[in-house]
Design goal:
It is a single chain. Helices cover 64% and strands 7% of the residues. It has six helices and two strands. The termini are far apart.
Length: 219
């Protein structure tokens, strides 16, 4: 019983994490498309973004089905072990009956095992819920246990620009950046960028890709 619960809970927890990843990707695509609907319409990206959104949802659905199957197999295995234990008790009790054991003793032991099995089996419907809670808790612990970033966002080093009218090119060389509230996510990860003076440069990308961070870094 312990083996079934431990192994089954691990499987359900892992599949729950995978389904959550694909669901978050689908939500991110939809959110970015809605926020930048004018750009999406201008460049005709409706079909492409819709296919990407549906692809992530289908992946989440497939993993969700596997998670449900794993939970059902785990629950069925719990009840199988419980009733198989009763069958084993009856069989072994029948063998002892030819000796010194009496029928009343055999039935008493079997009914005690049966009661214990029902008590343990009553936890069956909640096992999958516990597994999902464990998956959510593991995600939180991953964030809490993440090593501290080597980027000091509060560092006073650096020379601020005196004017926003630049006569020379703007050059970013191996620039990395993280927000204080999200130290585990690098908004800029060792990017190299050259913006020539006197020309208009556009930064295009989905929400959270670092457009505003590059602008703030330059100014």
């Amino acid at each position: 019983m312990a083996f079934v619960v431990i192994y089954g809970t691990k499987q359900v927890s892992d599949l729950s994490k995978q389904a959550t990843v694909y669901t978050e990707k689908a939500a991110s695509v939809a959110e970015s498309a809605i926020r930048a609907v004018q750009i999406v319409q201008a460049f005709g990206l409706f079909e492409q973004l819709s296919e990407e959104h549906v692809h992530h949802l289908r992946s989440a659905l497939r993993i969700g089905i596997r998670k449900s199957v794993a939970g059902a197999v785990m629950l069925g295995s719990v009840y199988f072990v419980a009733y198989a234990t009763n069958a084993l008790a009856f069989w072994y009790g029948d063998r002892l009956r030819d000796g010194s054991a009496e029928a009343g003793t055999i039935y008493a032991v079997v009914f005690l095992i049966l009661d214990a099995s029902f008590v343990v089996g009553s936890f069956g419907p909640f096992i999958q819920t516990f597994a999902m809670a464990a998956a959510a808790g593991a995600a939180v612990l991953d964030v809490l246990d993440h090593p501290t970033s080597d980027i000091d966002v509060y560092s006073p080093k650096g020379k601020p620009a005196e004017s926003v009218h630049f006569e020379k090119d703007l050059v970013l060389s191996s620039v990395s950046f993280v927000y204080p509230a999200r130290p585990t996510v690098r908004i800029l990860d060792s990017i190299d960028l050259r913006i020539k003076s006197g020309q208009v440069t556009g930064l295009v990308g989905p929400s959270g890709s670092g457009k505003v961070s590059i602008i703030l870094w330059e100014t």
